[in-house]
Amino acid sequence: MRSGHLALSARGVQMQYRDRGTGKTLLAIENVDLDVPDGAFVSLLGPSGCGKSTFLKIVNGLLPATAGEIKLHRVAKGREDAMVFQDAALFPWYSVLDNVAYGLVCAGVSRGEARKRAVPFIDLVGLKGFDDKYPYQLSGGMQQRANLARALAVDSAILLMDEPFAALDAQTRELMQAELLRIWNAAKKTVLFVTHQIDEAVYLSDRVVVMAARPGKVIADIEIDLPRPRPLSVKRTPEFAVYEERIWRLIAGEYEHARVASQPDAAS
Amino acid sequence: MTETTAFRVIHARARRRRHPLRRWYRGNERAILSAAGIVSFIAAWQIGSDAGLISKFFFSSPVEIAAAGALEVQKARFWEDVKISASELAIGSLAAVLLAVPLGIAIGWYRGVSLTFDPWLNFFNALPRVALIPLVVLWVGLGFEMKTIIVFFGGFFSIILPTVEGVRTVDRQFLDVARSFRAPERLIFTSLVIPGTLPFIVSGIRLAVGRVLAGVIIAEFYAQTAGLGVMIARSEASLQSDRMLFGVLIFTVLGIVLTEAVGIVERYLQRWRPSLDLEEAA
């Protein structure tokens, strides 16, 4: 599947906010460089406030960056990117079918045709038979499956996933991680996945890009050399633990560094 | 001496099968009790009135009101009045919905429109609309148009204010979804803004039912030209409390029917909402 080109290439991306209250300028993201090869699964891992979700929104075009450049590899038809949202964000007044078809309708496909094209993606994410249900009739995990199907249906080259499993309970989250790898394998997409969970990032990814907060910046880029396909039991292997430990140390070290720096007598 | 044990034992209990009559009552409790409430009130009124405890001059009695009604429905003038009042209500209310909903959505959505109209909305909302009746009479006279305009005023402001509020509180995350998938402006309205605002519009319409009914009666009282309000006022002038109360009853029934109709439309439009299903099940 990998054709060697980059699906996404970011250079010097920066995001500044002006705080309405204090009038001060805050640096949310400082000079982020990131390359995502075609077909790869890359995670952005960091604590809340490191700007990882902001970066995803910049890539998606929901927010304009204040500096830098992002290149998405152009595709012949359809969208370059599609977003899987943190809270499933399904329209409560639409059935599962109409929610999954929504991206296609936005792209100008007629409603009938969009519904027809949505069906295989509903089946792919394991929601067969739930087409006519409304979101409130689905569990949290099923809502996230529909959220994923909606993004898959527009057939974009790259999927942007914004902590999609953060609100799920621990068991459902593990199940959904395994499901995501199955779907990723079937759909052959490039994925940029944002999370704050170390084990999630290691389990899913080819590469984990570790970010630090205030200002958000990349502090490490770690290749995860675990064989695929990865059953959930991979999480119980020593190799997996080594990756977790290494990333945990990076984040903990950054946290310690920030804590010391913020103390008033740190200089003495 | 009683023996004390370390455990309090909680036994399982098989679900008892209740008597069929009792189950029928459980299933229809609401209908049975409200019917009982209505029937006993009417009975007490009738009995009290027959016994001389309630003045027939001021309060009439259910039987007399029914008799007056039976007499009334045979008159052509009565049906003429019904037709006039119903037309005023229908046209005024329809115009209120058709203007308040799109204008409310535009005000809620577009900042510029909002800033332009906000002072006027506040002004007219604070203004007691019945105070405008003399002015409207000056414009269009005492006829059908004046009364329809008063009905319109009553409905319009009860609908537009919640509509504006509804659009302003549309969930940001749904807006992000629409923008993320590059929804065209028109689709943002049809897929998101309108469905999200619908509960607010419906509650505005529910509020409007009372306002338009009050509007038509007040306008007819004032104009004294034609309509059921005039029938009520004339009955009062000729001391026919039974005929007057029959007129009041018609408006009341109309109010109930309209409110129920709004409820039915609401349940259909919002079948995606879990809370309404639960209400029905309860």
Give the SSE layout:
The complex is a heterodimer of chains A (268) and B (282).
Chain A: E1 6-18, E2 25-37, E3 41-45, H1 52-60, E4 67-72, E5 81-84, H2 96-106, H3 111-124, H4 140-153, E6 158-162, H5 170-187, E7 190-195, H6 198-204, E8 207-212, E9 217-223, H7 238-262
Chain B: H1 20-27, H2 29-50, H3 56-59, H4 62-72, H5 76-109, H6 111-126, H7 133-140, H8 144-168, H9 172-180, H10 185-223, H11 228-237, H12 241-269, H13 274-281
Helix pairs in contact in B: 4-12, 5-6, 5-8, 5-10, 5-11, 7-8, 8-10, 10-11, 10-12, 11-12
Sum this structure up briefly.
With 268 residues, chain A is an alpha/beta fold.
Describe this structure in words.
The complex is a heterodimer of chains A (268) and B (282). Chain A is α/β, with parallel strands linked by helices and 268 residues long. Chain A has a domain at 1-73 and 196-260: Rossmann fold (3-Layer(aba) Sandwich), CATH 3.40.50. Chain A contains seven helices and nine strands. In chain A, the strands form two sheets. A six-stranded mixed sheet of chain A has the order 5-6-7-3-8-9, with helices on both faces. A three-stranded antiparallel sheet of chain A has the order 2-1-4, with helices on one face. Chain A is globular, with a radius of gyration of 19 Å. The model of chain A has no long low-confidence stretch (mean pLDDT 89). Chain B has helices at 20-27, 29-50, 56-59, 62-72, 76-109, 111-126, 133-140, 144-168, 172-180, 185-223, 228-237, 241-269, 274-281. In chain B, 28% of the residues are buried. Classes of the chains: A alpha/beta (268), B mainly alpha (282). Chain A binds chain B through residues 60-62, 79, 82-83, 85, 87, 89, 91-94, 102-103, 105-108, 134-137, 154, and chain B through 173-174, 176-184, 187, 191-192, 195-196, 198, 270-274.
